[in-house]
Structures are given as C-alpha cells and as structure tokens.
Amino acid sequence: MKIILKENIPGLGYKDDVVEVKDGYGRNYLIPQGKCIIASDAALKQLKEDLKQRAHKIAAAKAEAEAAAKAIEGLKLVIAAKTGANGTVYGSVGAAQIAEALATLGHEVDRKIINVKQPVKMVGAYVATIKFHKEVETEVAFEVVSEDAPVAPAAEEAAAETPAAE
Hints:
Layout: E1 2-5, E2 18-20, H1 23-30, E3 36-38, H2 41-53, H3 55-72, E4 76-81, E5 88-93, H4 95-104, E6 114-116, E7 120-122, E8 124-133, E9 136-146, H5 153-165
Parallel strand pairs: 4-9
Antiparallel strand pairs: 1-2, 1-3, 5-7, 6-8, 8-9
C-alpha cells in the first residue's frame, strides 16, 4: 500500500514522503492514528502542489538545520555516569543524557533526533548521530566517564578555553 506521511516516523520516513507499507500496518495503525493518508492520484497531485508552494519554507528549514549541524560538528562531549568497579555503567547512557550534555554547552537538541549506534553500558568513547533534517545529519563524539574518576586533563582544558573565548 502506498501512503503519504503526515509526520516524521522514525524508521519509515519523513513528512510528505510517499512510502510503501504493508496493508495491515497502514490500515490498522497509521491511518487511524492520523499519521498518513492513502496515496491516491488526487492526494499525490495535492502533495506536489503543496511542496511547490512550500519550497522556500523547506529551503529555510534545511538551511537552519545545516547551521545547527555546523555548530555541533566537532564537539566532544564528556558524560559522567555512575559506574561499578569494573567500568560498567549503572543503566545506560542514551539520547536524553546526550541532549542534556549538549544543552549545558548551549545547543538545544531534541532527544528524539539523536541516535546512538550501539548500547552504551561501559566507560569509553562512542559516537551518536543527530539527524536535524532528512538531508542534514552530523555525528557527535562523546566519552562516558565514571562520576568518581578525576576530571580528565582534556576536559579541564576545554572548560578553561570556553570562558576565555567569551
């Protein structure tokens, strides 16, 4: 079944994308929830006209996403977590903690657009992908450290450079 998405759905597509889904998923979940419409000829014509009229808004949103990605690009986050004696994190570090760490640096990012490629359950270095727009994404490196461990010299240098830059 071909459908037109009315909103972004992770793993399926973005708003105004035409995608193919199984009939049951479309009829029993997506359409009743108001997340899509059936891609009839009339609906596709209407979508094409809407996209043509909104082209400048879409371009502005993409430019804004590119600016946000450029601001975050190259950042190295340090996230402190409670750990056991062998470096195992109690629970795990996820998108919410990464969004919180970015917010402390002055970058507001919704946790829903952050994707951590692997489960973070040990102390170490990892990479997360932030997808600002369907065509704009960036990777952010982050390091998980123990709350009990002393602050790393690199983190102290970064903290010392931040006030000097202002």
